[in-house]
Amino acid sequence: MQRKVRLGWVGMAWGWWMAMAWVTGISAQTPLRVHPANPRYLEFRGQPVLLVGSGEHYGALLNRDFDFVKYLASVEADGLNYTRIFSGAYVEPPGAFNISSNTLAPGPGRFLAPWARSDQPGYAGGGMRFDLGRWDPEWFLRLKALVEEASRRGVVVEFTLFCPMYEEKQWRLSPLNPDNHVNGVEKAVGRTNVFTLDRHGGLLRFQEALVREVVGALKGYDNVLLEICNEPYFGGVSLDWQRRIADVIVEAQRGHALPKPIAQNIANGSAVVRDPHPGVQVLNFHYAAPPDAVEINAGLGQVIGDDETGFRGTQDGPYRMEGWDFVMAGGGLFNHLDYSFAVRHEAGTFDYPGTQPGGGNAGFRRQMRFLKEFVGGVRLSVVEPMPKGWLKGEWPAGVTARALVERDGAVLVYLRTAGLPQQYSARWSGFLIAPETGDFTLYTRSNDGVRLWVDERLVIDHWDEHSTAEDRAVVNLEKGTRSRLRLEYFYAGGEATMQLEWSGPGRTRQVIPRDFLRTFDGKAGLRGEYFADTTLSARNREVVEGPIDFRASDSGSVRVAAGSVRLGPPLDVGRWRAQWWSPREVKLVRDEVWEVEETGSTLAAPEFEEDLVVRFDRVK
After folding, report:
1. Half-sphere exposure (CA, 13 Å, Cβ side) for 6?
2. What is 424-553's CATH topology?
């Protein structure tokens, strides 16, 4: 009986090995690479591919408690094909960046790094210090198991080698910190010198060794993308160091049957890329809304990615529309940072608090699957984004339209409402009426700049770009007296927050109610002036409003009436089938046939909320 059981196990192992050999047999002929016919996309297993992910916070490898098998099963079930992991050269403390159940912040004793532990105590995160001259076999076994599991499920893994030390609390925990290892690096090396060629204090040789070891360990896999460094525009990371790491990757995989594409993270938002490293095939941006990064770098012949989202509230709309905009502009990779994945919630079920710097949930992942499948449903080898002005027609102010055209085939058109503008400023003015006499504390919560005057005295001045912050001032008010109030605010992108609160005699802290605000002409509320810039100089709207209490996560969706959008894209004369879909609800809204005449014709869009996409196909 034991002999039969053993043979059965061997048979299963042989079957698994043969399956993996079949996959690697295909991939040996078709490594992950820039698609030769259309460099906007990568080619994966012989086909052009649009990579779309909504994944956990990069700790799947370095956090022993995170069940990556369950997680990758969820990625596959959600119909997505991309995830991103960090190496362990960087790790976060609990509570960093307001992230609850952060996978990049492992519990005590659960942090796994590529380097083995020494026999000397003193690691800041607990336990023995690291030995940068020796590898931890457990880490490499976990790395290979994770990549193999992803490969089996058709998921591409971006392996991010390094990350800057944003603050001292991250540097304090890094194995590269001289206090955390036994390898004789200069003690004076600071967090902003770690990733340089001239001030690294002896760390460079260990960094290069890690790159070579990882490249060697991943040699046989066809589903890996190697990113040099996450957000190297922070923490003193130098450009020449990035080019050196790219050189090391190129040299380390010279002669490999499956060389990994190299990705370089360029900027938050957008930037013009000049003189890119010849070994880099993917240019990654973060928070790339609007998708200017795609348009201004389209001529480079490289894949452009929006590799991280966030800081626009916890609602789905801003991130879904960012993804559609980016992909329809010609982007080849979109990755949402999804906080519903956490330890013990590897299927994406964590109910995170509203203080998170982003969103994510099962419903959003369904929307992302629709994006991947809708755009991926055309022949990516022959699609091209159309320039602004190509689409003809009429649509209301605030609605934008983008088109992606398959050569001699389908035409995709994406319509969206403005949502939060990229930049604006506002001024609210009027009177504040106190219900009692005494000292009142006024509070502002803002993201970005805020200034507050009471009776022409500046009491709060935090006029710069910042994440959500609270400021306060104490003022003496008399019951029933009208004190002049002026509040100014600017928004420079990301999350938008502006709240005006008070507390005082007989009154607990609350947003100042409308009943205690008056415009100069006696109306309840304040006069609100809005400006199309951050300098209060291009006024475009005036309203009466109050209380002052809004956040990006509370912003309502925008509905566009039926027929207010009329499209007249320059399609060939003939009959075309138009299928209108709601990306928000992931459902077919209308299916019709449109007759395009030589004299010109327009097609009225159905009513939609936030965004709408239509596919035109010629009727044979």
Report:
1. 3
2. Jelly Rolls (2.60.120)
